[in-house]
Please model this.
Amino acid sequence: VSLFFDNAKILVTGASGFLGQHCVNRLLGNCPSLHIAVRNKSDSVRSGIVEHCADLRVPAEAERLISQVRPTHLLHCAWATTPGSYRHAPENIDWLYAGVALVRAFGEHGGKRFVGVGSSAEYDPSDGPCSEDATLIRPASLYGQSKAALWAATIACAHRYGFSAAWGRVFLPYGPGDAPLRLIPSMLAALTASKPIEVTDGGQVRDFIFAPDAAELLVELLGAEASGAYNIATGRGVAVRDVIELIAARFNAHHLVRFGAVARRPDEYSSLVADMKKVERTFSWRPSMSVESGIDWVLKSAENHAIS
Amino acid sequence: VSLFFDNAKILVTGASGFLGQHCVNRLLGNCPSLHIAVRNKSDSVRSGIVEHCADLRVPAEAERLISQVRPTHLLHCAWATTPGSYRHAPENIDWLYAGVALVRAFGEHGGKRFVGVGSSAEYDPSDGPCSEDATLIRPASLYGQSKAALWAATIACAHRYGFSAAWGRVFLPYGPGDAPLRLIPSMLAALTASKPIEVTDGGQVRDFIFAPDAAELLVELLGAEASGAYNIATGRGVAVRDVIELIAARFNAHHLVRFGAVARRPDEYSSLVADMKKVERTFSWRPSMSVESGIDWVLKSAENHAIS
Model:
């Protein structure tokens, strides 16, 4: 990775978020100038990193950040992600509007390379695996609509200012740093305490990706020149039920899992899996973890934390 | 039309523009409260119209306009349209960014129905006639990219604020009010003066629509509740050469037309024609003019102007 970033001044937004922190880990030590933007000041900042505080839902703050840092490379990870509410949170519109201001300011201040974190929620996956340039963009959620609109605006800004831009559509990330209310952490918490956990029927098929793998591909995108959208996924569909049973088996706790106790969301697709042909054509990146090994990693890590 | 707008407060932006003026003509007398936004103050404003001056490339002016008028219905026609330069004019980004501010303010102030003027330039027409929900959105020009991005942002804002929104993708409008530098007016000017005119080979097939017909369909959209994109076109493809020859024939001036003297733009599609099935399923509207009768209308109107 290092060679890509020899003369780069990189800015990562959402750097304390789930994917942002893995991207920072990946970049740290591989670039001469690493700037991060976070909402709230950190207690301590690792050496090699310059931290900036900004509320990037406010256009003027987004513009100020860019004019102060003047990054050559911008990795835009910041967005509303509160489990349960982010899909329809009104602040998605703030992220969209201020996002356009951010991307525009990046162009106005001479930015060269933009990578934004998109989502599988932008696709209509009714016709099978989602392919970046063939599957229809028809998001069902405000989250997916706002992400899709920011990418559309980014294409225009990239054309206007002459920078190159890519968009990583992340499927279902999991792993270290995952929010406590999301599926895997909430299962671990319940089963560790020998408490029952209520879940859907679990028949939904999803493309799970280990968060450090997702970050690795996002950083690879940042170092590349290819424009366009790229799936950040593995290409393998796994039923949510299989993931749940994998974890339950490790706890010998199948009896604690109440399948079907929670209804699926009405707008949930039965299958949402990436077609990875475009990524495979363009990058040498391959996911380091299958969902089985990734979950083993998460469980081991939880055990170690419990011991220490 | 009148019944649709009984309790409406309508705001038309770009009201002095090519399509905007035909929309205003169509609305005038059919709604109790008609507000228009123009860049520069008019010398005289017709009775029944309230005029507002605003530069809608500036977000704060767009927001102020909406908070002052508080329209229930917004027909957004304003955009950069200078012949020759609008496709790649940097100000497309201003129209996009301030457009998001406008649409968002419309939602925040209780707006109910939005219709925006989109463009056939949003489509990739390689696979034949363009269908609103199946043809890929892959604009080649900054103009098309910016229009597509504003529609994507509008979808998100409509979801967020609960208004209904439609987007009229206009194909090739012509007719009264057309800018002097566009094909038909520039031909009329040259041939009236018996001067030669240089044109491309003319093999491009386009979907010409008489501007008052386009306005009629936009106003019908404004009065409807259907959400989504709709083509503003006729569904009939006509070679540009045929239009040129039609006009030349009326002047007995084939010898003045230099076909092929101008190169096609590199990003020009050989065919850009609308699939009108969705419009025909939803609306009783049909175009009143074929391109032959529309051009006759334009020529007669030019003669009358010359006589008077």
The mean pLDDT of chain A is 95.
